[in-house]
Amino acid sequence: MSVRQLAGFGLGLRRQFARALLDHEAPGVDWIEITPENWMFYGGRHTRLIDEAAERWPTTPHSVSLNVGGLEPLDHTFLSATRALVRRVGAPFFSDHLCYSSAGGGPVHDLLPLPFTHEAVAHSAARAREAQARVEAPIVLENATFYAHMPGAELDEAGFLSATLEAADCGMLLDVNNVYVNSQNHGFDPKAFIDRLPLSRVVQIHVAGHTRVGDTIIDTHIGPVIDPVWDLYEHLLTRAGRLIPTLVEWDQEIPALPVVLEELARARAVAQKACVLQ
Description:
Elements: E1 9-12, H1 18-23, E2 31-34, H2 45-56, E3 59-61, H3 76-89, E4 94-97, E5 100-103, E6 106-112, H4 118-135, E7 139-142, H5 157-168, E8 171-175, H6 176-186, H7 190-196, E9 202-208, E10 211-213, E11 216-218, H8 227-240, E12 246-249, H9 257-277
Parallel strand pairs: 1-2, 1-12, 2-3, 4-7, 7-8, 8-9, 9-12
Antiparallel strand pairs: 5-6, 10-11
Helix pairs in contact: 4-5, 7-8, 8-9
C-alpha cells in the first residue's frame, strides 16, 4: 500500500465504535489513528478492521510502549511488528510519547516522566533515531502528562521537548490537552509554553478530555473537550499559521459514535475560526 499523508481531522479507531464507523458515512472523518498494541498482535476480525479502515482513510500508528526514554534496549520484536504495520496501512509516520514506559524488564502500564536533563535529551534522541531506522519510517514524539518532576532537572519541560526534537531531528505530536493538564498541575502559562515550542516540527495534534480529582487534573481522555482546551488549540493554530492534522481522543467512557463525531465537528469549527484570525 502506498503512503497516504494526513490532512484534516481524525479519530482513533476504538473497538467500541469501529464497526459503526466503517458501516456509515462518518462525516468529517479524514483519517484514522490506531493504537498498535490494541490491534497488531491479533488476527481475524481485528486485522480485517484495520485493513478496511486503511483502505478507506489514511491511517497512522500511535503506540504507548516504545519506551523511547527507558534504559532497557528497545524491543526489536515490537519495532518489527510496527514496521510491518506501517507498511500494511501505508502510514506516513509512526508516533509514541517522550517518556519511559518500562522498567526492570517489564511494562509499567503508564507513561512516566523523564528527568529534564541534557543526558536524557541525548539518550532519548539516540533511541528515537534507532527506532526510526528499524521501522524505516519517520518517528513523531508526543509531549506527555506527568504528575511529579524527576530530580536533577537542568531544563524545563518546553526546553526539554525542544532540545530532544532537535537532537532527534524528528516531528512532534503536540497534545494540547496534555499542555493544559500540565499547566494546571504545575502552575505555568499554557499559551506561553506553546509559544516556546518549535511549531514548525508539529505534524499532528491531539485534543482530549480529562478528569479533575480534587486539586489535580488526570489525563483520562474522557470527553468532552473543555472550553479552555479548545481555546488553547485555537491559539496553537493561530501561532502555527497553518492547519495541522488534528485528532480527537476519547478513550474511556466512550459514548455512541455520533457524540464523538460532534467533538470532531467542534475541532473543525475551532480550526476554521483560527484561520480567520490569522
